[in-house]
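Study this:
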Amino acid sequence: MPTRRNCILLCLISCGETTWDQDRRLHGSTDLPLSESGRTAVAAAAARVTSTNLGAIHHPPDEAATETARILAEAHRVKTKAVSDLADPDLGLLEGLTEQVFADRYPKRYKQWHDEPFSLSPPEGEDVADARARVLGAVAKLLRRSKGEEVAVALHSLGLGFLRCWLADRPSRDLWTFLQDRPRVERYALTGPMVQWMDDEATAAVPSRA
């Protein structure tokens, strides 16, 4: 593991749950508030963030992510900053469906979602691969701009899965494994070359960014 002197610290924070998350409904870009239990879990997580060098808490602009960031920011006396490119993908007609309804209505897409989720193109939504590239690119940009402060990013489940898979160098099919039984707050040390690789991968996946 790189030392603090030659790395950039990344603090990944899981956004609190919404009622859709609790009901196991597909939740991408739909704007929902935190549930009561989600709010309680975020407040408890705020106490476990021990860094004394946090910069702003960066987050997607939806209500649940904004409130998650605000709770963390108030606990640590830092600012929040909404970044639209950190949002989970727009799942189009899949938004709000339960697993069972998804499986019944779109059986081929449902199998693809579980076997190779990065290859899914939701009907009337955003390609998951494009969303992954967008999130990786946004995080790489924040890391590059860091001036010695720890970069804190609050993400919803798919965004967290994109980052965790990339950090572990694991394929698309492992996404779901990286969303199970994980701590709400995680810290990683990335070297400069790692940040560049993250940005290069994001750029290669979306040629229009070049």
